[in-house]
């Protein structure tokens, strides 16, 4: 169940991470699309302005047959005092700009420069419009020339999409197309302008005509300019998707391996139980019913019985740990009088201890726990087994007590063994953990007993705690809730 839940959590986290990545990537690309689209629009407007500017000078060349001279004189200074500021813009055969200001001061340099640049920008537009009016009065506008100049300007800004140029005249405030120019590539799509975008540029301030430029599929132009970024982003997303898919595949494969390992463990432990039971029975017959066995044979038969008992307990414990990890594992809980469980446990451990073991039992007759009988028996058996194993060379004294509390039942197992160091106490319930004992190997085990106790108590809705003093003994307490 834990493995299945962990896999679902990992899969959910991966999906959320991938969704967040795709969202952030899409949000960034949307912002980039908007900024690129704005830049393209600015470039188109600038292309229309420059085409108009060059068309005017084309007519000037026509009027003067190439002999034209122009002069722009500027005398500029800066001052912070706005009251003393004067500006003048004039236009005759030559253009002059006079701006009289107080000498430049060191403060607010950036603001002054920005004002100057803004002035020049406005001045440029005013000069172009004034020039337009003057030349228009001398020579009509060449719309064909403007169209060709506009095509050149658009190409210089890397704008290669079908477009058409129209000269629109306002008649009684209603637009009326005077002339239309189509680009060569727009002839194929002349009837499909549903996705087009329009740009208007006034011919002059005193004219009711304006240029109307229509570009087909402008979004395609934006995507073309974003092609490199789009391809790299797509590759990045694909790589991340591949990595996530590989990760999920790896997790699924590990989950499958874990299930195979669990099934193998279950099958092997079940298969081992049969020969162990047969060997145990044969050993018991030889030990108890063979009157011809001498003391030496009985000694070895006793050793075999002891090892078979230990092996049987180990197999049973591994099987229990394996079974409890299955999704189909269910506790068969019932009301169990504690006094029914303790006597068989005491008898069993006295027989296999190999040394004197004294039990002190203080359990009222009316105390019962709601638990799975098999697992409750095994939990108490593990605690008693640890008490015997870690009692050292001295006789083992074990005290088993139970009492009813307000929130449940508490069962404690106390021994007079070697105790557990403070550094080891936080780890004794970890799987496969054994208290370090240097090079001593007189205590056998695999570090599964206490892990099993803690895990089973959690499944029963309870808990286990421990108190220990090195050299004095240890107390394990099982807390069963009502």
Explain how this protein is built.
This protein is α+β, with helices and mostly antiparallel strands. 52% of the residues lie in helices and 20% in strands. The strands form 4 sheets. Strands 9-11-12-14-13 form a 5-stranded mixed beta sheet, covered by helices on one side. The chain has a 4-stranded antiparallel beta sheet with strand order 5-4-7-6, covered by helices on one side. β6 and β7 form a beta hairpin. α7 packs parallel to α8. The two termini are 25 Å apart. About 8% of the residues have low confidence.
**SS elements, strand count:** 14
Find the structural class using helix and strand composition. alpha+beta
Q: Give average pLDDT, whole number.
A: 77
Strand order of the largest sheet: 9-11-12-14-13
End-to-end C-alpha gap: 25 Å
Structural domain count: 3
Provide the β-strand percentage band. Answer: 15-25%
CA-based gyration radius? 47 Å
Q: Could you give a short account of the major beta sheet?
A: 5 strands, mixed
SSE topology string: HEEEHHEEEEHHHEHEEHEEHEE
The coarse overall form would be: rod-shaped
Proportion of helical residues = 40-55%
Low-confidence stretches: 68-106
């Amino acid at each position: 169940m834990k493995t299945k839940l962990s896999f679902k959590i990992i899969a959910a986290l991966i999906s959320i991470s991938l969704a967040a990545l795709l969202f952030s990537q899409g949000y960034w690309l949307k912002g980039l699309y908007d900024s690129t689209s704005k830049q393209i629009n600015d470039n188109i407007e600038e292309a229309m302005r420059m085409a108009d500017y060059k068309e005017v000078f084309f007519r000037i060349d026509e009027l003067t047959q190439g002999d034209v001279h122009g002069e722009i004189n500027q005398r500029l200074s800066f001052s912070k005092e706005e009251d003393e500021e004067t500006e003048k813009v004039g236009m005759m055969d030559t253009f002059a700009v006079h701006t009289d200001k107080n000498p430049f001061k060191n403060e607010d340099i950036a603001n002054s420069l920005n004002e100057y640049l803004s002035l020049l920008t406005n001045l440029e537009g005013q000069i172009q419009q004034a020039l337009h009016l003057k030349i228009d009065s001398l020579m009509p506008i060449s719309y064909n020339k403007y169209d060709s100049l506009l095509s050149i300007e658009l190409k210089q800004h890397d704008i290669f999409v079908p477009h058409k140029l129209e000269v629109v005249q306002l008649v009684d405030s209603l637009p009326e197309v005077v002339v239309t120019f189509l680009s060569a590539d727009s002839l194929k799509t002349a009837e499909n302008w549903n996705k087009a975008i329009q740009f208007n540029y006034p011919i002059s301030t005193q004219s009711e005509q304006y240029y109307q430029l229509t570009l087909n599929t402008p979004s395609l132009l934006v995507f073309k300019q974003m092609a490199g970024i789009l391809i790299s982003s797509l590759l990045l997303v694909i790589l991340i998707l591949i990595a996530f898919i590989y990760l999920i595949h790896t997790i699924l494969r590990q989950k499958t391996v874990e299930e195979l390992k669990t099934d193998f463990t279950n099958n092997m432990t079940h298969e081992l139980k049969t020969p162990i039971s047969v060997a145990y029975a044969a050993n018991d017959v030889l030990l108890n019913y063979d009157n011809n066995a001498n003391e030496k044979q009985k000694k070895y038969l006793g050793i075999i019985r002891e090892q078979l008992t230990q092996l049987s307990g180990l197999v049973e414990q591994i099987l229990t740990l394996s079974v409890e990890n299955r999704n189909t594992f269910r506790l068969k809980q019932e009301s169990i009088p504690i006094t029914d469980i303790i006597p068989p446990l005491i008898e069993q451990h006295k027989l296999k201890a190999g040394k004197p073991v004294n039990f002190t039992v203080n359990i009222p007759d009316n105390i019962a726990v709601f638990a799975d009988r098999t697992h409750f028996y095994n939990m108490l058996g593990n605690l008693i087994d640890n008490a015997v194993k870690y009692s050292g060379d001295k006789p083992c004294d074990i005290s088993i007590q139970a009492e009813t509390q307000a929130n449940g039942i508490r069962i404690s197992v106390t021994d007079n063994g070697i105790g557990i160091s403070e550094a080891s106490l936080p780890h004794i319930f970890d799987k496969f953990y054994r208290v370090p004992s240097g090079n001593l190997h007189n205590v056998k085990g695999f570090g599964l007993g206490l892990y099993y106790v803690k895990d089973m108590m959690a499944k029963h809705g309870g808990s286990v705690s421990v108190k220990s003093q090195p050299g004095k003994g240890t107390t394990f307490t099982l807390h069963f809730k009502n």
